[in-house]
Design a protein that fits this description.
441 residues, alpha/beta, disordered C terminus, single chain, 14 helices
Length: 441
């Protein structure tokens, strides 16, 4: 009896310690970021992706967010948004709703470039130009207040130290990266240094610094929380508790790799949310179940945007280390060094670079000759050329990491051949896909 009483007291004391420790731990503030990573050309061409997948994302996501003010979504690729906005199939009501959702913060336009550009094979000037074109379109369509404050750069194959400089000079308050050397990422996890202040240039100092958040895993959803197209079994009363524990366990594992109490968890994948209703309905059940017992689970999860996440993160007032190096080459595993794309499809890389040079000359000459009377104004040809160069900066385009048929499809689109320009620019400059003479003879 004495042994039993002693064991009971020890057990009681242990339970008290566990309860006290649990009570002392703050509830994790979890920001679930719904997103869809939509490559501007990868396995399919840009138009094929839009027709077969992307337009359904826009339509179903807007329907879901319009019906529930608690839902959120971030969007990156302005090329696709512009295509949908200008499509004859898109209704004025959809445009009105999308604008309202942007204005009230449910949809956040992040990064704002025409594409998610590569950081290893493109020229910095072309990267800046496609960012400028995307931001110009956002400003003209939604107003200055809707310009991005944060960048979401989660799929380029390695990250250049030029990026924090570019983001800082673009007035961004922070950005999110993903693909870095797996050994560095593992080290950052152990040291809780996945978040840091990245200084792109020691010469430029603080003016080239931008706060950086590194995704702890990939950009896919936590705990296999993806349901459309039969990816996983839907949430039911029978599996709700099990899936809730799986999600909480996943989140708490991530929390061990970060300082502080504010956690970012991506909820998206490649071309995910084509059926946004199915994704949100299942996640809604999990969130309602977990949040009703947040004291028990130790987490509170909400749909969020980058603005909301970083605002909460900065409010913690933590200090972070400084990083001054780049993240090249990208190594995803012991035998996977992503270096071949530096030279893959050299003709495409050459066309992109030379066409950018010709575009700059064409734009300058156009401005100088803008007071002239044109038989046929070449502005549309210049605009088309600029768009083509923007699109080829995508991280699956200029890198040559798309399948050959897709890369081959880019060639007539991106080879803007200014008709060899054998004579001086003052003679003539001719654009592919535009038969008009662009400048003074």
């Amino acid at each position: 009896d004495r042994i039993c009483n002693l064991m009971a007291r020890v057990l009681w004391l242990w339970c008290c310690v566990v309860v006290a420790c649990a009570a002392a731990e703050p509830i994790l503030d979890v920001h679930l970021i719904p997103h869809s990573h939509c490559d501007v050309g990868w396995q399919l061409t840009v138009q094929q992706y839009y027709d077969q997948e992307v337009k359904f994302i826009f339509d179903t996501v807007v329907d879901e967010l319009w019906a529930d003010s608690e839902k959120r979504f971030i969007w990156v690729e302005i090329t696709f948004l512009k295509m949908h906005w200008e499509s004859q199939e898109t209704t004025d009501e959809w445009r009105r709703r999308f604008t309202t959702l942007v204005d009230n913060g449910q949809i956040e336009l992040v990064r704002g470039g025409m594409v998610m550009h590569d950081e290893g094979a493109e020229y910095y000037e072309s990267a800046v130009e496609q960012m400028y074109d995307g931001h110009t379109w956002i400003q003209a369509t939604f107003g200055t207040k809707s310009l991005p404050k944060y960048a979401w750069h989660i799929d380029p194959f390695g990250h250049s130290s030029v990026s924090p400089t570019m983001w800082a000079w673009s007035c961004f308050d922070g950005f999110v990266i993903n693909r870095i050397d797996y050994e560095k990422k593992d080290k950052f996890k152990l040291e809780k240094k996945l978040q840091f202040v990245w200084e792109g240039s020691p010469t430029l100092g603080e003016t080239a610094q931008c706060f950086t958040h590194t995704l702890d895993h990939h950009y896919g959803p936590p705990a296999d929380c993806q349901w459309e197209a039969g990816k996983n079994k839907p949430i039911t009363d029978e599996n709700l508790d099990t899936k809730a524990w799986e999600l909480v366990t996943d989140i708490k594992g991530r929390a061990l790799e970060f300082e502080g109490n504010v956690i970012l968890v991506p909820f998206g994948n490649d071309f995910m949310f084509q059926n946004a209703t199915e994704e949100f309905e299942n996640m809604d059940k999990l969130l309602a179940y977990i949040n009703a017992k947040s004291d028990y689970y130790g987490v509170y999860i909400k749909y969020s945007t980058l603005v909301e996440f970083f605002d909460a993160l900065y409010a913690e007032g933590l200090s972070y280390t400084k990083w001054t190096d780049d993240f090249f080459p990208y190594i995803s595993s012991v035998d996977s060094h992503w270096t071949g794309y530096f030279t893959t499809w050299p003709n495409l890389k050459s066309y992109a670079r030379s066409s950018a040079e010709y575009l700059r000359t064409a734009e300058q000459l156009y401005v100088l000759a803008s007071s002239s009377k044109w038989e046929s104004d070449p502005f549309n040809a210049i605009y088309s050329m600029r768009h083509a160069i923007d699109v080829v900066q995508h991280h699956d385009a200029i890198t040559g990491t798309s399948p050959d048929p897709v890369s081959e499809h880019r060639m007539p689109f991106c080879d803007l051949q200014l008709n060899s320009c054998k004579s001086p620019p003052t003679t003539s400059i001719r654009f592919t896909r535009a038969s008009t003479m662009c400048f003074l003879s």
